[in-house]
Amino acid sequence: MSKDNDKLPISPKALVVHDPSLNQGGQINSCVFAGNRDTMQNGTAEAVVCNSKKLEDAMQESGLKIKHHEDNIKFLKAQKNRLDDSILDIRVALGKIHSASGTDSENKESSNGRNEEEIIEQILRHDKSAAGICFQLKTNHETQISHLPSMKDVMGIVALLGKVDDDNLSRLLSDYLGLETMLAVVCKTHDGLKALETYDKEGFINKSSGLHGLGASIGRALDDRFLVICLGNLRPYAGEFIADDPQRRLDLMKPRWDNGETPPGFLGFAVNMINIDPANLYCATSSGHGLRETLFYKLFSRLQVYKTRADMLQALRVITDGAISLDGGIIKNDGVFALGKREVEIKFPKSSGRSNLPKNYFDNESRMKELKWKRARFVEDLQREQTLLDHAKFNFEIKKQEFVKFLAHSSSYVTAPQFPAGGERSTPIS
């Protein structure tokens, strides 16, 4: 089921019916009621019937609204139940794969887990940085901050949101991005960005709120500038993905000479050499985009990777968004070269033994994430439809009560004996 088809074509605005005889609260318009009373006093029974028909039509319209929302709720519940069943089936399948995994993969997982711990230790040495404070808060004070808007929108730190198979390549990619970017805080929405730092009326930073206040609360004052990357403000990659790739790598056009051949030594694009946790391959943003086509596409774009400096320099004519080589060469962009050697302090962790798991494991994890995202959308639609249904039922009851009152009031004029002007009863002439 595609995301477009999952969206129920509900337009609450299109359901609003305006009846000139009813005001916004569903009450009968006093002017119309007064006109009805004057008409009935003049003995015009036809007008009473006409206005009665208007009220009946309004009630019928309100009843149709109720049925519309009830049908929508029935449909949404059925879809949610179907997703619940699919999620349960995938969870069982993942459990079977876990139980069948061998000892070798567990050993590799443990080894690479230590590698990740070393990266975390390096981050924590920057104890008064935004990255260090965020990581400490997420790991040691999770229960206290889970309700705070300044932290619940934070996904993590760039250095810990991706992994690389080769340690040398990890070092090169980290060197290309630089320490400040590797320690950048990643949040989902612009509201989360605003919650991380607030300002007073004079425009100065409010040190008692946001990340500054949280850092001070654990004895780690935040004084330096820091980068925050907001996924909701990034323009995602708009192209296709490599077919049947569990990591959802981007289908980028390879650099080619005029004769159609790829430059020698070209190994691929950096954005596709980052391994992303399956949980973040789908729906890292509210619009359903993953980290590869948002965060890492923003950081690396079409950065090319070559085997040697010589290969990279030979391919200068077809390099558009920079390049790196495995022997340490870096071209930031067209005409800007990075020379010399720099010791990389923080790099991406090495990919874990999870890469040895069967392909369908990653397919199932990705599918699980996608289904959970869809389920969350259906739950939101259900809540919205229930609210609309409650409102429609409330309006229907109001119109029903007013209709009954109208009938009771009008019947006295329709059935009462009519007298000629002057108040005297006429007598028949014998």
Structure, explained:
This protein is an alpha/beta fold. The protein is built from 14 helices and eight strands. A five-stranded mixed β-sheet has the order 4-5-6-7-8. A hairpin with a 4-residue loop joins strand 6 and strand 7. Helix 3 runs antiparallel to helix 14. It comes from Anisodus tanguticus. This is Protein DEFECTIVE IN MERISTEM SILENCING 3.
Question: Any key phrases for this structure?
Answer:
single chain, 430 residues, alpha/beta, five-stranded mixed beta sheet, three-stranded mixed beta sheet, 6% strand, elongated, disordered N terminus, disordered C terminus
Describe, in short, the structure shown.
This protein has 430 residues and is of the alpha/beta class. Helices cover 50% and strands 6% of the residues.
Q: Name the structural class.
A: alpha/beta
The parts where pLDDT drops under 50 for at least 5 residues are 1-43, 102-113, 416-430
What pattern of helices and strands is seen along the backbone? HHHHHHHEHHEHHEEHEHEEEH
- The mean pLDDT is 75
- Taking all Cα atoms into account, the compactness measure Rg is 34 Å
Strand order of the largest sheet: 4-5-6-7-8
Distance between the termini: 87 Å
Report the major sheet: 5 strands, mixed
* Approximate helicity band: 40-55%
% residues in beta strands: 5-15%
DSSP summary, beta strand count: 8
General form: elongated
What's the helix count? 14
